[in-house]
Amino acid sequence: MRHTLFAAVAVLCLLASSTAVAQEKSGNKPGFTLRPGSAKILLIRPTIRVGAQSTGGLFEPNADWTAQARDNLGAALAVAQQQLGNQVIDAEEPIGPAAKTFAGYRALFSVLADSVIEYQFFPGNRLPTKKRKGSFEWTMGPGVAEIGRGTGCDYALFIFDEDQYGSTGRKVFQVFAAMASVSVKSGEHRGYAGLVDLRNGDLVWLNADQAMGGDVRTVEGAQKRVRQLLEDFPGSTPPAAPVVASATGQ
Q1: Residues 42, 153: contact at Cβ < 8 Å?
Q2: Which of 35, 47, 91, 244 has the fewest Cβ atoms within 10 angstroms?
Q3: Which keywords annotate this record (predicted)?
Q4: Spatial contact of 48 and 161, defined as CB atoms under 8 Å apart
Q5: Domain range annotation of the chain
Q6: H or E segment at 23?
């Protein structure tokens, strides 16, 4: 194992100069606004993946952690919906061929969001067509209207969350890498939320963070994560600040 770790560190030394770290970013379609009380939003069941990060950095899913995160994030989302400024309804999970359609659009949203993060949110990777100031032109295509048929919804809200907790081997690897002055992450926590116009498939808002906070396996951590995912949601109202008693008790 020791030889493997040193070999991995050596490879990282060669790649370190080209490694980029994502930053939290969000974007809106130019001119898009969402007045409170003006729209009906369909919340698509979030895609949630939780597991461990192996020594080599591979994701190892954990069914128990994923179930805990799904329960905690679901409860936090139910509370957060009250602050989104518009009516939000949960999409029913379809069966039969419709289930395949839903799964396909969930996967398509993930591909779209990853493309926005890579080719718009990273200025160095920005595509020539995305370099115009204020440009934010991304779409899933008009076919996405199918998932909102019969609901009366104007927009669909997609949410993705993935947590990889560093294994013991990964943490040891991190220590060896640090000895070689190479930065190695132990654990990855990323997520994004996006709002799609069901009339034309355009992505009108995306909030993405490749280094999110909050342990989604706990109630408090999931609440923090949902606040980050829905930060600056169009038309939303920030949660009221907690009331702090004055020193005089007045």
Answers
A1: yes
A2: 244
A3: Signal
A4: yes
A5: 24-29+37-230
A6: none
Contact 97, 249 (CB under 8 A): no
The runs of H, that is alpha helices, within 16-96 are: 63-80
Taking alpha carbons only, the member of 162, 174, 176, 193 closest to residue 52 is 162
Which pLDDT value is given to residue 23? Answer: 55
Q: What are 11-28's pLDDT values in tens digits?
A: 444 444 444 444 547 899
Q: Closest by alpha carbon to 194, among 158, 219, 229, 164? A: 158
Residue 83 has what pLDDT? 83
The parts of the chain modelled with pLDDT lower than 50 are 1, 4-22, 24, 244-250
CA dist 157 and 190 (Å) reads 17
What does the alpha-carbon distance between residue 205 and residue 193 come to, in Å, rounded to a whole number?
Answer: 8
Q: Are 102 and 87 in contact (CB under 8 A)?
A: no
